[in-house]
């Protein structure tokens, strides 16, 4: 009977430790989500990057002969 109670106590301790770790991870994730800076993209910047990608694609397709 003593072995069974020791096993039960060990199992309950492991489960409670697991639950505490899960709770700490959720709290840490909530804190990191709140602290994350908000990044706003500029439409001009987006347009410029898109134009650069278009030019690179045209050059790779060898549309232009002077490059």
Structure description:
This protein has 67 residues and is mostly helical. It has one domain. Helix content is 78%, strand content 0%. The longest helix is centred in the N-terminal third of the chain and has 34 residues. The mean pLDDT is 87.
Alpha carbon gap, first and last residue? 85 Å
Q: Return the string of H and E elements.
A: HH
The radius of gyration over CA amounts to 29 Å
Low-confidence blocks of residues: none
Strand count, sense and closure of the main sheet?
none
Secondary-structure-based class equals mainly alpha
| Number of spatially distinct domains | 1
- Would you tell me the overall average pLDDT? 87
How many strands appear in the DSSP assignment? Answer: 0
Strand portion = under 5%
* Total count of helical runs of at least 4 residues: 2
Share of helical residues: over 70%
What general form does the structure show? elongated
Q: Which tags fit this structure?
A:
mainly alpha, 2 helices, 78% helix, 67 residues, 0% strand, single chain
Could you give the topology of this structure?
Layout: H1 2-35, H2 43-60
Briefly characterize the structure.
The protein has two helices and no strands. The chain has helices spanning 2-35, 43-60. It is elongated, with a radius of gyration of 29 Å.
């Amino acid at each position: 009977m003593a072995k069974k109670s020791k096993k039960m106590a060990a199992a309950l301790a492991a489960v409670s430790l697991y639950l505490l770790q899960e709770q700490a991870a959720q709290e840490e994730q909530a804190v990191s989500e709140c602290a994350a800076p908000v990044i706003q993209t500029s439409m001009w910047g987006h347009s410029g990057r898109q134009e650069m990608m278009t030019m690179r694609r045209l050059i790779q397709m060898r549309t232009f002969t002077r490059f």
